Amino acid sequence: MTIEPQEFRFNSGRLSLDLPATIRRRASTPQDVLATSGAPARWLRDAFLTQGLLVLSSPEERELLALRDTIWNLADAAAGQRPLPEEAVAHLNKVASHALAVPQLDAASGRTRLIADDPFRTALATVARDAVELLGGPQKAKIKACAQTDCRMLFVDASRSSRRRWCSMDRCGSRAKGETFRQRHAGGAHEHSGA
Fold first, then answer.
1. Mean pLDDT per 10-residue section of the chain, whose length is 195 residues
2. Strand pairing of 112-115 and 102-105?
């Protein structure tokens, strides 16, 4: 049995940073995982922002991608301890201003359902509000970029020591340690051959 690789990553520590993580290897050969047909709607579903798979129009997909760019620009500035770009802040605030879903109790099941007039805009507002809380709160200082030179994925360092270096120990951390090991042994082999 083969296990399919996960289409999207949700390991940044914040929903709002998971959206910019849909561009992989940003610092070398960027791979946009939202570029395939239907991927933006699948991301919203897999992030538990919609109850099913929405059918998104091209303008709606562009809105999602614009929010992704906005969050990247703001979070990257925060990680680099630079001032937040005003245009990006204005865009984020505008998207965050849309109404969120309203919780309603279902009499038959006794469960809560979330009702939204516009599920797409509600999903975007949820992501944008998470970014507002992140960038305006104490976790802003914990936003870091992956130390793997070709990755640059942003994440919240929630480690006790605040010394987390990679977006994922399984991916980038493992690659970095493997490269260090190979360099160390290549140097040792070179030294032995010259003796």
1. 65 94 87 94 94 94 98 96 97 96 89 89 97 96 87 86 70 60 58 49
2. antiparallel
